[in-house]
Amino acid sequence: MTLKTHNRILLTGAAGGLGTALRPLLKSNCNMLRLSDVLEFGACQENEEIMLADLANSAQVFEMLRDVDAVVHMGGISVEGPFGPILQANILGAYNLYEAARMHGVKRVVFASSNHVTGFYSQAQTITADDPPRPDGLYGLSKAFGEDLSRFYFDRYGIETACLRIGSSFPKPKDRRMLATWLSYADLHRLITACLANPAMGHSIIFGASNNSVSWWDNSRAKHVGFHPQDSSDGFKTEIYQTTTAPDLNDPIAQLQGGAFVAMGPHGFVDYDPKN
Q1: Where are the domains of the chain?
Q2: Based on the number of CB atoms within 10 Å of its own CB, is 87 exposed (0-12), middle (13-18) or buried (19 or more)?
Q3: Which of 25, 136, 168, 208 has its CA 20 to 30 A from that of 186?
């Protein structure tokens, strides 16, 4: 049974894929779960409240954080795309969220960063949180900004943040790359729970992956968080190998940790040759 660590937790991006998966799980962490997204997504259930907000609208975000004890920030754009929407949702939106947290005295944020902050590292490397960001696109760049922004708000205002560089969080891995990056929904909740319950989070960068045999990420800098993944992609390996074709190992998409994101243009599809 998960210990309730907060009275009211705000979950942004509640209508998205991860928000939908986390909605029933996070209610075990608090007495009241406030759900937010930009558009209507249904009615409240028990121990829930809904407050719609556009992350780019500072007044709406300010109201969204009123009487909140902690934030699980899954909101924003989660794929590669044109810079304008990413700027509004992920960059201006992150600033508005931290400003509202500062003004309301909220001291704990769990921020959904991304593995695409480091997507241009080779799959032959194992990196730690000490390695510099190497974003693989505008989306990854916006998440790198969010990590820096959260560091500033910790250093100046004492708002503790766990930056979760989430790998690939789905019911099961979809391809060979995800054998290294997969994070089960249950392990994502375990990670968030550890971050909410830790008495001294500080500012921490944590790679979000399950206990997969293949991994490019070393979480030794985040041992103080107490995250112990219990699931693994290993049980899906035979199925994945039987249902997918072998990658071209000369293709940067297969060489680099960001996968297809390293070759995506601003419209979210491959539109150039990353070898040139």
Answers
A1: 6-263
A2: middle
A3: 136
pLDDT in tens, 201-240: 999 999 999 999 999 999 998 999 999 999 999 999 999 9
49-to-1, 8, 33, 115 alpha-carbon distances in Å: 23, 10, 6, 31
Q: pLDDT tens across 125-176, in order?
A: 999 999 999 999 999 999 999 999 999 999 999 999 999 999 999 999 999 9
Residue 10's identity, in one-letter code, is L
Fold annotation for 6-263:
Rossmann fold (3.40.50)
Q: What is the pTM of this model?
A: 0.94
Q: Which helix (H) or strand (E) holds 8?
A: strand 6-12
Which amino acids are annotated catalytic? 139
Q: How far apart are CA 172 and CA 158, in angstroms?
A: 37
CB atoms within 10 A of CB 244: 12
Cα-Cα end-to-end distance for the chain: 53
CA 262-264-266 angle, 5° bins? 130
